[in-house]
Design goal:
Cytochrome-c3 Hydrogenase, chain B, binds NI-FE active center, globular, alpha+beta, 517 residues, 3-stranded antiparallel sheet, binds magnesium ion, 13 strands, disordered C terminus, 14 helices
């Protein structure tokens, strides 16, 4: 029996630790831990509720738009403006969020995951004329691989030419991500941390020059998605096709739905381009009931008050709690463990009958002669993310042309309320919910339940491990000293620990000693 501890898991955002107990080469037990405490939810208490849409964006620099929007949806309801969002306001929110999906997914595949499959050392004796690849060669010649570690000698399967082409796309992706940030900022004001997302809509005016600036950038991103991202995912899938059978997880999925097509006051009745629902492993979808969402802290370093609905949720740290091993809570839906993210969303679109998504998913499965079960895997997650990037980028172009210059994008509302509101939609990494309770014009309680909290959360009171833990349990590990299978599984979820814990002590106290190695 051997215990593998990966701490921190690098090339994910934030501080994540994974422990696995391996017996006869197979993982028997797994623990996923968030190793950092923050405090964003508590910072909001007693402030002007409108501050939430600015402050929550500081949860994370990769998906600030998602948090700003979730806060705005919750505030829309609290201020009673949720049924009065103008078409411009709705479309601008979709465009800001859509452009952020594109930047986040490109970042994930190339900068955070591709080097699990692409050997950057293939550039060590590069003799071609590409100046960027020559820089990488010179970088390697200086004797260290810096941002390109860890590496998996012994399991790189692309040819030398394929590796070199993929590394050049890695470099190009850095420029594409900058372009995608600019695309978000056209209507978001700046990126990260948008200024235009507010309760009641968006403060940016959709002028003709801004619409053109948005579409011109999105066209270039689509060109990159078509010519590099999708072909590279397919190439990786063809060489590492065993990863269609690795990392299945809990096989139950949830999407809150994203990209509003109308402004129904009830978020659960809104028509959304990517639909809302719970999808089972036999591809049946049921309606989402947000009352069934709870968070448990049995294995988390927080005071335990049982399973709590987010309106009544608490975030009170207890670093000495026996049995706890994470700063991440355990969200559950009707007591069930659910996976969230691009795979969940593409399954929801697939089951709801979206012809384009069905065609693309069936195309990938057909190419690899695989059944739907193959989707519940490391490669299923990468493929779903790539497919989603393509369809969302294309839709953003279409939606931008529906904007009406000169028409309002913001609806005013009354500030003096005692009320509450729920903001559900999808961040790039999955289902995101914010819940606010307002009393006498001040925030009384605020809870965010975030995608990586769903995916990377620890074991609950019933003994059910979280989705990433379930994905790791049962995995065959070839070399316990270089457990690349486990890291590939974890990174297929694109975990973001900044988001997952979103809870910094005001005085910066030492809350624990962290193993780094
Ligand atoms: Ni920090 Fe985030 C996304 C949100 S993930 S990136 O996507 O919400 O937990
Ligand atoms: Mg929370």
């Amino acid at each position: 029996m051997a215990k593998i501890v990966i701490d921190p898991i690098s090339r994910v955002e934030g501080h994540m630790k994974v422990e696995a107990v391996v017996e006869n080469g197979v993982v028997k037990e797994a623990k996923s831990s968030g190793m950092m405490y923050r405090g964003l939810e508590n910072i909001l208490i007693d402030r002007d509720p409108r501050d939430a849409a600015r402050i929550v964006q500081r949860i994370c620099g990769v998906c600030p738009t998602s948090h700003g929007l979730a806060a705005s949806f919750a505030l829309d309801e609290a201020y009673g403006v949720n049924g009065n969002i103008t078409d411009n306001g709705r479309i601008l929110r979709n465009l800001i969020q859509g452009a952020n999906f594109v930047q986040s997914h490109i970042l994930h595949f190339y900068q955070l995951a591709a080097l699990d499959y692409v050997d950057v050392a293939a550039c060590a004796d590069y003799t071609g004329g590409d100046p960027e690849l020559t820089k990488i060669k010179d970088f390697i010649a200086r004797g260290h691989l810096g941002p390109f570690v860890p590496r998996y000698e012994g399991d790189y399967r692309l040819s030398k030419e394929e590796n070199i082409a993929a590394v050049s796309h890695y470099v190009k992706a850095l420029n594409m991500r900058r372009l995608a940030h600019e695309t978000v900022a056209v209507f978001g004001g700046k990126m990260p941390h948008n200024m235009s997302i507010v309760a009641g809509g968006v403060t940016a005016a959709p002028s003709v020059d801004k619409i053109a600036a948005f579409i011109w950038r999105m066209e270039q991103l689509i060109d990159f998605i078509d010519s590099c991202y999708i072909p590279d995912v397919l190439l990786v899938a063809s060489r590492y096709s065993d990863y269609f059978g690795i990392g299945a997880g809990c096989k139950q999925f949830m999407s809150f739905g994203v990209f509003d097509m109308d402004s129904d006051p009830d978020l659960t009745k809104r028509h959304r381009y990517i639909p809302q629902g719970i999808v089972s492993s036999d591809l049946k979808m049921t309606r989402l009931d947000p009352n069934k969402i709870t968070e448990e802290v049995q294995s988390s370093w927080f005071q335990d008050h049982g399973a709590q609905h987010p309106y009544d949720g608490t975030t009170i740290p207890d670093r000495e709690k026996p049995g706890a091993y994470s700063w991440i809570k355990s969200p559950r839906y009707d007591g069930q463990v659910l996976e969230v993210g691009p795979l969940a969303r593409m399954l929801a679109s697939y089951v709801a009958g979206d012809k384009q998504v069905q065609g693309m998913i069936n195309g990938v499965l057909g190419k690899f002669n695989a059944g739907p079960d193959a989707l519940f895997s490391v490669l299923g997650r990468h493929a779903a993310r790539a497919i989603e990037t393509k369809i969302v980028a294309e839709k953003c172009k279409e939606w931008a042309l529906q904007l009406q210059p000169g028409q309002p994008s913001f609806t005013d509302f009354n500030l003096d309320v005692t009320s509450r509101g729920m903001g559900l939609h999808e961040a790039p990494r999955g289902a995101l919910g914010h819940w606010i309770v307002v009393e006498g014009g001040k925030t009384k309680n605020y809870q965010a339940v975030v995608p990586t909290t769903w995916n990377a959360g620890p074991m609950d009171a019933k003994g059910q491990p979280g989705p990433i833990e379930q994905s790791i349990i049962g995995t065959k590990v070839k070399d316990a000293k270089n457990p690349f299978e486990l890291v590939r599984i974890v990174r297929s979820y694109d975990p973001c620990l900044s988001c997952a814990v979103h809870v910094v002590t005001p005085k910066g106290e030492d809350l624990g000693r962290f193993v780094v190695g």
